[in-house]
Specification:
The structure holds 2 protein chains of 2 kinds. By secondary structure, chain A is mainly alpha-helical. Chain A contains 6 helices and no strands. The longest helix of chain A is centred in the C-terminal third of the chain and has 37 residues. Chain A is globular and about 55 Å long. By secondary structure, chain B is mostly helical. Chain B has one domain. Chain B is elongated and about 65 Å long. Chains A and B meet through helix 4 and helix 5 of A and helix 7, helix 8 and helix 9 of B.
Chain lengths: ~200, ~260
């Protein structure tokens, strides 16, 4: 991870197409952050489903930890996105469809934690949390796909995956940044899950 | 349809395992839905407070808007936004009651033992939908009159369709979220929690409904085909929300 940070800040040459060239480097943090957050959100939903079917409280702990990490990473994505927006497009906030979708996603997570906190019993809490995660996940495609495609969006499309979109050096750094973020998130997730599971087992004695 | 519901005397846990394959629209199922629906209606009619309070809430919100906007002329898309804001807040004030009351009165466990989860959800959803439809019928004409919305070129049929699909989605999502919020500890937090939890889920519905309503009210200000597009989005949302709630409710209902 530290290699990636060094590479992003010092090694990468400035991009030609951006207005303020050296600050385009924030793309190395913003997009991988978003990707990691997406993976975490999906993981949270998957664990919620596993919990509802198998009723194993460990799955619920995993779902909750993924949700917490997802919230943090989405917040980071929003902040880095806002900084980039200020530099590139002039203002911090444009009501771009993706920005709107992120606001709603963060609201969903805040509601999720508030809902869980309000239910005292552990089993009920797990069931209610899992139900809400999955229900919100069912309505998310409307925001992530319908909105950005039906209205004008400032976000560029298809830059990273196509072969002529980005300089190859950038791509190496970009994908290693993604790997770095994912590894970082996974590490925190593992530690936190272990901690929670042990706390619960101790509390049950 | 799987194990029947059971009650564990020692721990007090009532378990109603999810139905293996909900026999929706079978004759017994429909009878259960009707039973739940009429139970809700009867309980409301006994006191008549709850429904009255919800209707009054919507009328008061409507009155606030008309007073504050009396001197200004409001564009038609703002009219539609205001309409759906009033409907949303009226739904938030009144639609959680179907599940919250069960928890408060302690009758939730009896329901777990007596009817199938899908029938329960369907019955309560129908009741909420009817309540919301009543609110829509009362609020829409009053609001449009109060805001002096120009109704010259309005497409009434389209407006009714938007209100129908939009109301369906609003009631469906609210009912399911109410089921999730009901076990939360009582007090002021629960009603705010209902609002906080419902809003993000309802945003696509509210957006599509507002666009559809404003296209229906003044078709000439919107690109052609907006209203029918929005109706399709609304119908899709309704299908998604209803499917998700029926699939999930069986698993989330056996909280004991």
């Amino acid at each position: 991870m530290s290699v990636v940070i060094w590479a992003a800040i010092i090694y990468a040459p400035p991009a030609e197409m951006f207005r303020v060239q050296s600050l385009a480097r924030i793309v190395f943090f913003h997009v991988p952050c978003a990707m990691t957050a997406t993976v975490l959100s999906i993981a949270s939903a998957v664990f919620a489903l596993i919990y509802l079917v198998k009723r194993n409280l460990d799955s619920d702990i995993k779902s909750k930890t993924s949700a917490e990490l997802a919230t943090i990473f989405w917040l980071l994505t929003t902040v880095t996105g806002a900084i980039f927006a200020k530099v590139e497009w002039g203002t911090y906030w444009n009501w771009d469809p993706k920005q709107t979708a992120i606001v709603l996603l963060i609201l969903i997570y805040l509601a999720y934690f508030a809902l869980r906190a309000a239910v005292p019993d552990q089993r009920k809490q797990a069931i209610v949390g899992a139900g809400y995660t999955l229900f919100a996940a069912a309505t998310m495609p409307f925001l992530t796909y319908v909105l950005p495609n039906s209205t004008e969006s400032l976000h560029p499309k298809g830059v990273i995956t196509t072969s002529d979109g980005m300089d190859p050096t950038y791509k190496v750094i970009f994908w290693s940044s993604t790997a770095g973020f994912l590894a970082f998130a996974y590490w925190i997730y593992k530690v936190q899950t272990k901690l929670e599971i042990l706390t619960r087992r101790l509390g049950a004695i | 349809m799987g194990r029947p519901s059971s009650f564990d005397r020692e721990s007090g846990v009532v378990e109603s395992p999810p139905e293996k394959f909900p026999a929706i629209l079978g004759p017994v199922w429909i009878r259960e839905v009707q039973a739940i629906f009429w139970k809700e209606a009867r309980v409301e009619m006994r006191t008549r407070q709850a429904v009255g309070a919800t209707l009054l809430f919507s009328i008061v919100t409507l009155a606030v808007l008309s007073f504050l906007l009396a001197r200004t002329s409001v564009r038609s898309d703002v009219d539609s936004a205001l309409l759906w804001i009033v409907l949303f807040f009226s739904a938030m004030s009144g639609l959680a009651r179907v599940f919250v009351r069960e928890e408060e009165l302690g009758t939730a466990d009896a329901l777990r033992l007596s009817v199938r989860p899908s029938a329960l959800l369907a019955g309560k959803f129908c009741f909420n939908w009817l309540l919301l439809a009543a609110i829509e019928v009362v609020v829409t004409p009053l609001l449009l009159t109060a805001l002096s919305a120009p109704l010259g070129g309005a497409d009434l049929g389209l407006l009714i369709v938007v209100l129908l699909f939009g109301g369906l989605g609003l009631a469906a999502a609210s009912t399911f979220v109410a089921a999730l919020v009901a076990p939360a500890s009582a007090g002021g937090i629960r009603s705010s929690l209902f609002l906080i939890a419902s809003f993000p889920v309802l945003v696509p519905l509210l957006l599509a409904a507002t666009l559809g309503t404003s296209a229906a009210l003044s078709p000439l200000t919107q690109p052609v085909g907006t209203a029918s597009n929005e109706c399709i989005v609304l119908a899709t949302y309704d299908v998604v929300v209803l499917t998700a709630s029926f699939l999930l409710f069986g698993y989330t209902w056996d909280i004991g």
